[in-house]
Amino acid sequence: MQILTWNVQWCCGMDGVVDPARIVHHALAMGAERGGLDVLCLQEVAVNYPRLRGAPGDQLAQLQALLPGWQLFMGAAVDEFSAQGRQRFGNVIATRLPVLQVQHYPLPYPADAGVRSMPRICSVVKVADPQLGAVQVMTTHLEYFSKRQRMAQALALRDLLQQILAVAHAAPAPADDGSPFQTKQHTQHAVLCGDFNLEPHEPEYAALSAPFNLEQPAGATGQWHNSWDVLHPGTPQPATFRLVDRTYGPEPGACDFVWVSDSLRGHVTDWQTDSATQFSDHQPVLLGLG
User: Which of 20, 207, 272, 283 could crosslink 62 through cysteines, CB 3.0-4.6 Å?
Assistant: First the structure.
């Protein structure tokens, strides 16, 4: 199973050109080198924001046209109406695997007066992988400017994994009545990827990755594991931000991560990034699960 995550900055490259096609083609080419891409997670996808650089139009429709046969799901952290009409901005999960369930979780947005910010969301698409079975694929983009909001969001993502594992350990009553209560495929397999706007030395990283104890069943534990560290313990993750554009800091840093649940640690086979592409101000990261 190959999963690629990329903050595409509304598909605006370092040359100022907005081009969803080159984003998709580059992502598919990275996956093709390792047997084919199964899931594509994109952050900062825009629908109808003509005042952004490059004037992006309906990028969800453009991405769907570029990925025939794939299913696309957008989690719009921002869904608003203005003089331009309806405008949406957020994450997209695209997959060629069978889809079992889709959920979107608004992340905390505590007040932080005078600080530039926007609402944030975590999108979750549960897919059926032929080898791994059901896998929760989650993508998000945490707040950049407000440290208070970013910490609250990191803690919420930790709590979300705890909730997923608790339900997998203690499933609801089964139902076969065709109603919304009908039995779901619960799983301990979870992948969380995206642009977290934090680096490994920061307290939000420690909060997100801290282990926890599940209330049910007693004694069960869990935590998020950075997939890079699973393969390369003790080695700093390659930078994924500020390699070319130093607008947001003088040095490159790693802030785009792919986290896995305990049950997937032994399935991490490959981790790759492309440090050369300039199709966005972030670099894509590709995770292989076997």
Answer: 20
pTM to 2 decimal places: 0.96
CB atoms within 10 A of CB 88: 19
Single out the residue of 193, 199, 272, 271 nearest to residue 241, CA to CA. Answer: 199
Dist CA 225 CA 36 (whole Å): 24
Task: Give the pLDDT score at 215.
Answer: 61
pLDDT number for residue 217:
52
What the block records as the tokens of 172 is 């609801």
Average pLDDT over residues 246-251: 83
CB neighbour burial string for 179-208, b if at least 16 within 10 angstroms, e if fewer: eeeeebebbbbbbbbbbbbbbbebebbebb
DSSP lists the bridge partners of residue 112 as: none
pLDDT at 219: 46
Q: Are 1 and 39 in contact (CB under 8 A)?
A: yes
- Cα–Cα dist 86/81, whole Å: 4
Render pLDDT for 58-92 as a digit per residue (tens, 0 to 9): 999 999 999 999 999 999 999 999 999 999 999 99
Query: What count of residues does the chain have?
Result: 290
Q: Which ranges of the chain does DSSP label H, i.e. alpha helix?
A: 20-32, 59-66, 147-169, 203-209, 227-231
Looking at residue 213, what is its pLDDT?
Answer: 75
Calculated CA dihedral for residues 89, 277, 229, 72, nearest 10 degrees: 40
Using CA atoms, how far residue 151 sits from 108, 142, 183, in Å, is 9, 9, 34
Written as one string, the DSSP assignment of 150-169 is HHHHHHHHHHHHHHHHHHHH
Angle at 216 between CA 213 and CA 221, to 5 degrees: 30
Structure tokens at 86: 């309806």
